[in-house]
Give the backbone structure.
Amino acid sequence: MNLSINTYQYGDRPEVTLPDRMFYKVLGEEGIRKMVSRHYDLLRESSIQGLFPVEDEEFELAKLRSSDFMIQICGGPDYFNQHRGSPKLINRHAPFSITPEGRIVWLNCYKQALLELPIAENIILSFWNYINVFSSWMVNTAPRIK
Ligand code: HEM
């Protein structure tokens, strides 16, 4: 499966397409929570681990918030809005320094979690296309000068 990572100019906000609702139908809430949990566990082992909570309790809450959002965006109940209010994800990411390199690490952790799912390729791709594009919106720190 070709899960390639798009590159964008710093500051670009390319148009986002939401995942196909089939992703939610096939995985269900529990499947999405498991996928997010796996993603976070991989982030914790990655070079951007320093961005994420250290305490187990806070780390579990981070998984919960993120999975609430992913369930909502994939067409499930609006748990994120109920618990956290309007997503405003750019603002919520503002306290963290997210570089283009950090985005690639974040996406590679998702790539691994997605490739472990026992579901059809086209369904995985619709979720990948969404995070591939939307993740560029969270980049808020200019690339390192080489
Ligand atoms: C570009 C790569 C990204 C990085 C490095 C990143 C990093 C982070 C960090 C450090 C947090 C705060 C700790 C936590 O609650 O986990 C966070 C929160 C969150 N992120 Fe990301 N993120 C990225 C992209 C995305 C994308 C593309 C989405 C949505 C599709 C997303 C959704 C969320 C949500 C829903 C929260 C919880 C916000 C809250 O309730 O406060 N993130 N992210």
